[in-house]
């Protein structure tokens, strides 16, 4: 899929363009471990990697602590034996996407908002993600020249916000994104564009001049919902990317997933939201894990999650407190815990 959706880098103009960083991602767990000085690590699983391959941009790996098997960034990407243990209640379609599909790659679950599964590609593979089981190949909105998705949005006058999601929508080349927004610009009832993306965090090179020019020219207010789970995911490259997005008028929010061993402490949560704010990003949602098969070892029980959220409320300014929610199949919004 990547080879068809990521065009060849325009090598003459941008020898280190984002596609190059994309292609150079680490895909071998042994290489990642050896870069971190961790040759032999118990629990690392070839079989789990065969089910959902490891993928980590080198710049993201560079933000992991050397020699620390418990590094919170490493835990998000390392394939483990624990993923293969069956866990009751953890299933393949945990959020009911199969039932909510309204057209090719279009999910219409909530009032006024259409979510486009723009593409199945991601620059990083997060072990806790529902994406590991989603049948993207047949279902992406971009695959059919956006035609079915645009037709579905045009036909439903109740839709005012289009959410580009995935996979990671910014894994599409900028001209492909422009193809969609050009078509949407002709639909009067579309008033807002939202982009759910982890790329400015995990591969900030993606926020290049072409993307910024596209963003500046859009006819709607734009909300970019980033996805960072730990303060260490930020760095100079990410700060430059978020500053550039803000300079083009985008509103920046962050959603995180509450993950055992990654960000399940008050210190980690406070640091995440304070560091995000320093990069111009406000917290939006703190998600309880979607109960997807293979992710059970990341789960934090609801009562512990609520207690953590209460402690965060006492510690953080109100504007740095994310909403603690869970996605429940069939609900008309994310459900507050
Ligand atoms: C999460 C989600 C949205 C966006 O919900 P907000 O509460 O507006 O962030 C929209 N559509 C679908 C299908 C979703 O899963
Ligand atoms: S959709 Fe988001 S959380 Fe899932 S693998 Fe891609 S980047 Fe990670």
UniProtKB/TrEMBL annotation:
Residues that bind [4Fe-4S] cluster: 122, 126, 129
PROSITE patterns assigned to the protein according to its UniProt record, in alphabetical order: RADICAL_SAM (PS51918)
Positions carrying N6-(pyridoxal phosphate)lysine: 334
Domain of life of the organism encoding this protein: Bacteria
Metal-binding keyword on record: yes
Keyword terms, alphabetized: 4Fe-4S, Iron, Iron-sulfur, Isomerase, Metal-binding, Pyridoxal phosphate, S-adenosyl-L-methionine
Domain named Radical SAM core: residues: 108-331
Cofactor: pyridoxal 5'-phosphate; [4Fe-4S] cluster
Catalytic activity: L-lysine = D-beta-lysine
Segments passing through the bilayer: none
GO molecular function terms listed in the Swiss-Prot or TrEMBL record: 4 iron, 4 sulfur cluster binding; isomerase activity; metal ion binding
Keyword flag Zinc-finger: no
Coiled-coil intervals: none
UniProt similarity note: Belongs to the radical SAM superfamily. KamA family.
Protein name: L-lysine 2,3-aminomutase
Organism of this sequence: Luteimonas viscosa
Gene: epmB
